[in-house]
Design brief:
Bound molecules: nicotinamide-adenine-dinucleotide
Strand order of the largest sheet: 14-13-12-11-7-10-9-8-15
Largest sheet: 9 strands, mixed
CATH class of the largest domain: Alpha Beta
Number of strands: 15
Strand content: 25-35%
Number of helices: 9
Oligomer: single chain
Structural class: alpha/beta
Distance between the termini: 28 Å
């Protein structure tokens, strides 16, 4: 357990997404960003200037930066291919690590990283910021209340015509690797279950502006017997869903629908006996807590608090690897055309 009140952090990777980290970091009073690293030194310098971090060290090499600044924590906002190297070096230097999703670029790397964190006795946790939104927390609380009875089925739809125009247009498995990890993680969270097997079909729709498959459907069997189905595309024009996706969850006594935003509607059985049962509309209560909300900020606050108290964050690597295994399992199933067991 750490006894210090002020924690010193190094941020690795000063690209477009680092904005969310730095915005959040300045809201956390007992956290000091002491170093910024990027392969492109100018990117790190620019962030230091933008965020008034004139005293922060600037570097292009994570190892040298860790030797120079000896931080308590490392924030890894580099590209997925660099997560392994950054995390392993940070753990070797005795740092706790909070890394961007996906945890790693391969399952082999992910397993090594989880083992290294456990051996080092340090926290290695992953940003799944979409878990830290009031809508999903509200739905999760409602499901936990048992109003719908035991859950049997979870469906999610994700359809967004995303014209990124950058590396994603040329990336393999762009939807499954870069986006579906959020949706799969949400499914595990909502269903309170872990994956057992997957069958997935991935394809690139005719007329697609992507080089590789940008659409997928996947059927997961979960360890509580529940079935989770995913349908998604980043190459679908019109009627977009939210980035959280559109959900239907079925329990033995009723169903709930969530649009990924504010709208949650549920019905439970009030009377049975006829061809159709009679249903009662239910409005799940709002999520009123200030805990576990706020996207990157909420997750980073939890991480910092856990570093100080020795508690375990919700998105600890040993749990988050199961969401990653859903993404890699789906990719492997699509490649082989077979239904595959999921292991982590
Ligand atoms: N949680 C979310 O909602 C969300 C959204 C977007 C991106 N991301 C994730 O954030 C990460 C970064 O994405 P981005 O959009 O900022 O990418 P980006 O390409 O804009 O930035 C990545 C930066 O990392 C730097 N970098 C690469 N290897 C490095 C290394 N070894 N050491 C130091 N710096 C290194 C690059 O020079 C670049 O500036 C990815 O893992 C991505 O999946 C998450």
């Amino acid at each position: 357990m750490e006894s210090k009140t002020n924690l010193r952090a190094v941020l690795a990777g000063c690209g477009s997404n680092s904005k969310y980290w730095l915005d959040a970091a300045r809201e956390i009073p007992d956290l000091e960003v002491v170093g910024l690293v990027d392969l492109v030194e100018e990117s790190a310098r620019r962030k230091a200037a933008e965020y008034g971090l004139q005293d922060a060290a600037i570097g292009t090499d994570v190892r040298l930066m860790l030797e120079q600044t000896s931080p308590d924590v490392v924030f890894d906002c580099t590209v997925p291919e660099a997560h392994f190297q950054v995390t392993m070096e940070a753990l070797e230097h005795g740092c706790h690590v909070l890394g961007e999703k996906p945890l790693a670029d391969t399952m082999e790397h992910a397993r090594e990283m989880v083992a290294a964190a456990q051996e080092a006795g340090k926290i290695f946790s992953v940003i799944q910021n979409r878990r830290y939104m009031p809508g999903i927390r509200r739905l999760r609380e409602f499901l936990k209340s048992g109003t719908l009875g035991p859950l049997t089925t979870v469906n999610s739809d994700f359809y967004i015509g995303a014209h990124f125009g950058g590396f994603r247009d040329h990336m393999q498995h762009v939807l499954l690797l870069d986006m579906a990890i959020h949706t799969f993680d949400a499914a595990r969270f909502l269903a309170n279950a872990d994956p057992v097997s997957v069958y997935c079909k991935e394809w690139n729709p005719t007329g697609s502006w992507y080089d590789h498959d940008a659409s997928a459907v996947a059927v997961f069997e979960m360890n509580n017997g529940l079935v989770y189905t995913y349908r998604g595309s980043w190459c679908a024009e019109g009627l977009p869903t939210t980035w959280e996706g559109d959900w239907r969850i079925v329990g033995q006594r009723g169903s709930v629908k969530w649009d990924g935003g504010e709208n949650i509607m549920a019905q439970v059985v009030s009377e049975t006996g006829g061809f159709h049962s009679t249903y009662q509309d239910i409005s799940p209560p709002p999520y009123n807590s200030v805990e576990k909300v706020g996207g990157h900020l909420g997750l980073m606050q939890e991480f910092i608090s856990c570093v100080k108290t020795g508690a375990t964050p919700e998105t600890i690597c040993s749990d988050n690897i199961k969401s990653l295994a859903m993404a890699f399992g789906a990719i492997e199933s699509a490649r082989s055309g077979k239904c595959l067991e999921i292991a982590w």
